[in-house]
Amino acid sequence: xxxxxxxxxxxxxxxxxxxxxxxxxxxxxxxxxVGGSAALGTDYVWRGTTQTQGDPTxxxxxxxxxDNGLYASVWGxxxxxxxxxxxxxxxxxxxxxxxxxxxxxxLDLNLTRYAYPSTTVDLNWTELLATGTWKGNYWLQAGWxxxxxxxxxxxxxxxxxxRLPLGxxxxxxxxxxxxxxxDAYGDSYAHAQxxxxxxxxxxxELRVTAHDTDRAAERLFPGLAGSRVEAALQASx
Length: 237
Hints:
Blueprint: H1 12-15, H2 17-25, E1 32-41, E2 45-46, E3 49-50, E4 57-66, E5 70-78, E6 89-100, E7 105-115, E8 125-134, E9 138-145, E10 155-166, E11 170-181, H3 182-185, E12 187-201, E13 204-213, H4 215-220, E14 228-236
């Protein structure tokens, strides 16, 4: 999440996050599984814009899930924003529910708290996200926040994506996204991405992704949007 300095305020949505996290972390009589992920990348690109000024990134996360669909996770990455923010790390705290609605449809609903513990200004904000998946290979995601990008104003995000398996080891993934930030910044922007993934040895994968944005994104994020390619070595466990 990279934008110019913005106003800060406490939000009602962020105050309910601890309660949701507590709910997701209480398994009751349900079995619990623990998993995680780790990645080394050449860049950290989020919704079309670099979060590390094009520099390499180290990322890792852990997820605890109950068999009733409730889950909680923590994910972290290095970041590099404007120098006066002193931002160097991002932690995402996520709580939600995911499960199958039928043989072909699945749904994930979560509340994500984006936190930047090293900053000298308050860049933290919270977003509601819903992702519907069809046949495991096609998805539609929608996100909404009343404090988008810590601006103090509402913003809505949508993404449509698909993956195409090419045998057991290869797949192609693509997505189109649009971020409505008119209330916060008087503009919205679109972005697209297309990537190839090689699952060369479980649990490792090599991913190469090309990103592009429209001119509105370049106006909103000078030097951070536009065309770029990033690669990552990732593993899930």
